[in-house]
Amino acid sequence: MVEHTTEGFDPIDEVSRVRAVITALHLTMKTAGSHGPQHPLTLQAGAETAQAVVAARPPLAIQFIGQATFCDRSLIPLDIQGFHLSQQLARALHVLDLHEIEFEPGFDARGALALAELLNCPTTQRAGAIWDEIPHLHLSSLPGARTGLDKVDVDVEVLAATHVSLAVAAADSLAAEPADTPWNWRTGMAIVRRLDRAAAATAAGAQCALELVPGAWSPARRAVSSVLHVLLALADIGASSAAARGAAHAALALTVRGLTRRDGLTVGEAATKLLPALLQRPATQGGTVEPHIIRVCSLVNLLSPESGEETVNDPILQLVALCYDLELRRSPQGTNIDLSFLDVLAWAMRIPVTYGPWPALLARAAGLVPPGSRVRLADGAIGIVLEADAADPLRPTVLVGGQVRRALHPVTLLSATTLGGR
Q1: Is 90 exceeded by the pLDDT of residue 303?
Q2: Cα dihedral sign for 284, 247, 328, 58?
């Protein structure tokens, strides 16, 4: 049996990747401004910027606020030269009333050249026509940012909700692909990174945002739920980022390919069906197999009955299987209801031999009354949990009839069957 250690490795420093993006983008901006967009030096700088973005593993959001530079709200330490370059980029953005550049997977040299042209624009009117045409790039202002000598504040709830919503939309595109097509590694990795960043910003906010996404619990939405709960459980025990993202990506691929709206394969059947699609790696993604891809394929292979491996005691596999099975049971066949996460988790806790300690760990990571749960207050009102207090989880903050209330007495959890569906 393969042992999955929590001591994952990432040979390239993520901060260095962000610095490389800033350096390359600044060079492209300056070269385009001095020599024009079609000069060979500008074209070369644009290609180097695109390569730097790919190496940084998008989605990647860089914020320029005050005299500080952030990546996904984490402060990026810069040397004197890096600070000088970032401030020139910041000034170019602030002229256009922008603070954030978000690179999506698929950003290329043409996008880098268009971005450089935009940064050289003197007015927002001229720039607006450019940035609407740049694919795989989002530019935005941060009106809620407060700059000062010692503080920058960006709304973490908005950040988490945005990442979750975009992850669900991307998962929908994966679910729409034919089952026999090769797995889209780029989109899958982007979804996992988005949810990892959402959970790191605010775990409660990410769960709440997922629960409140409009519409039914489609296979794509349940796949995002599976990923999020794998990440929360492994973060709770201090697992490495590499191990957590590998397990989360395996859960994503299994649920996207294994579930239908009201039915689905067993986790073993889903793994057997998925493995050939994972191994058909598109040639356009390069000839070097990344450790992340090897890790995901290994997990899925070990979950397949055809592997012949004894995997029942492997903790990472137990967690992936648990999160898959929870989503398999969320939308029971022959009904028109979708169960809450707490409903399906209670089912799993009745069979601890199958999943080891993970159901209890998931309950702890999500909180006794996780965000999005339906509860009844002491006065009989029914509401949705927005946030639970770790010190007093049975008295959460609840949304009732459009009003936010803090429960003064312990609340009662309500099941989906009690409510008659969602």
Answers
A1: yes
A2: negative
